[in-house]
Amino acid sequence: MPSFQHGNSPALRGNAVNAQSLSSKSSADDFLKRNAAKYNLSNDLSGLDYVTTISTAAGSYVRYQQTVNGSPVFSKQLTATVDLDGHVSLVVSDYTPYNSVERAPDKLTKEQAETKAAAYINDKGKGKWGTTGNTFGYVIQNGKAIPVYKVVIHANEPFGAWEAIVHAGNGRLIEKKDLNQKATGSGQVFLPNPVESSGSAAGLADNNDADSPALNAQLKNVQLLGLDGTGKLAGQYVAINSKARTKSSDLTFNYTRSDNQFEDVMAYYHIDTLQRYIQSLGFANINNRSITANVNTYKQDNSFYSPTKKDLTFGSGGVDDAEDAGVIAHEYGHSIQDSQVPGFGNSLEGGSMGEGFGDYLGATYEDAVTGDGFGHACVAEWDSTSYSSSNPPCLRRLDEDKVYPRDVAGEVHADGEIWSQPLYELAGAIGRDAATKIILQSHWSLTPNATFNDGARAIKQADQQLNGGRNAKTIDAFFKARGLSTN
Fold it and tell me: What positions does the domain FTP occupy (predicted)?
């Protein structure tokens, strides 16, 4: 008795797919040859190697790899989308033309390239590292095809998988890339500090790091982004170094302030958030790195940024400095300026601008979290409860109406209040995002010994660059009120 089978047999379906793939590749080849000039290709498609065809019920996708002398040009591919009628409906191309091919007569061995890559990734010789890939190919720069090795390394420090593109001749680093998948954790923080979030300093006391119902009531649950997955508070933009050695296998970091691990979470969350905010404004090249934050390693009531070590340190005297987001933001501000102008603040006025910018960054960050009511024009309300009797307590204010040169005290923190006020007023007038973008843009115009007037002119020029000078009159007025010139 004959058997009956509904639909195509597996063999028939396979043959149909293969036929579709072959037909699609033929259609893609013909189309690219006819339109070679449009895509900067050779008429015979030399320098473009076929990779694969993916066929689906809706159409096929033909992928090619750009090559030089038979070796891949890394990350340079071309895809052709072919519809069911055999027509190419879309071409997406990374193909990059070049005028010459650089030779490497003294070509490195693969082993030499791996050693170079490990050094560039900065494993510091701390234990084993191993490669998971080492491929010879090319990159194209300034119209020239350059011979390179692409080396993928698993390192111990910094932990994880990294890619280094190393020149195949002289061994110089051409590109380094972090390949690690980032993890998201969770934790508890003050947001931004318990005084501002509660709207009062009443009933809030440090009491040698003791917990209290009033302080615990101000804890907020947050996501900790960009973690490296090791269980430590280390990630894309900050790595915590502390006595507590905070670690969680499930990436949950819920502590109260009586536990030193709480300050670790505070520092990680707020620094990471600030860097992501800077990038949201369109700046991918301002302090875009994992900065070390030393927490509870310094017993004085002070915090600082080290321009030589490029790290942050938060003191534990009085209220622990890392319990206040305003202090964290202020110190991160110094790191930001140093990344834009190495050695910034070498003069009294330059140093004062550094302190003023840090206060601006802290105050506007606090305002953005809770609104600009209680704590308006004040920074670090919680940290300052141990030394300020004002209401609210303030480390410094941004509305003291100081005028240059009449109120110059010759001390950078005091004179920073001359600079912070027009910045803060600008944010009030045109919005935090617009003002911060102008201010950050202006830093690149400055030098280590820049003056207040240099800074004011740079801010007006940055507004011209970014906004066609739309805010010029507002900028003029705010700086003129402080005795500073924008002309």
Answer: 57-93
Q: Which amino acid is at 304?
A: F
Cα torsion 186, 431, 236, 306: sign: negative
Maximal C-alpha separation, the chain? 110
Per-residue tokens: 167: 């020149």
Number of Cβ atoms within 10 Å of the Cβ of 346: 13
Residue 229 near residue 223 (C-beta atoms within 8 A):
no
Do residues 453 and 485 make contact, with C-beta atoms less than 8 angstroms apart?
Answer: yes
DSSP 247: B
Contact 307/338 with Cβ under 8 angstroms?
yes
> Are residues 128 and 202 located together in one domain of the fold?
no
| Paired strand residues for 155 | 160
pTM as predicted: 0.70
Assign 77 to helix, strand or coil. Answer: strand
Answer yes or no: are the C-beta atoms of 78 and 61 closer than 8 Å. Answer: no
Determine which helix (DSSP H) or strand (DSSP E) holds 222, and give its type and residue range. Answer: strand 219-227
What is the per-residue pLDDT across 85-136, written as a single tens digit (0 to 9) for each?
999 999 999 999 999 999 888 899 999 999 898 888 875 555 556 777 899 9
Please, are residues 459 and 486 in contact by the beta-carbon 8 Å criterion?
yes
Specify which residues 175 forms β-bridges with. 165
Q: Enter the tokens of residue 342.
A: 């190495």
Do 239 and 260 belong to one domain?
Answer: yes
Q: Identify the domain boundary among 145, 178, 211.
A: 178
Q: Give yes or no for a contact between 240 and 264, defined as CB atoms under 8 angstroms apart.
A: yes
Residues 92 and 109 in one domain: no
Go through 68-81 and write b for each residue having 16 or more CB atoms within 10 A of its CB, e for each that does not: beebbbbebbbbbb
Burial degree of 86 (CB within 10 A; 0-12, 13-18, 19+): middle
Q: Rounded to the nearest 5°, which phi and psi values hold at 114?
A: -65, -40
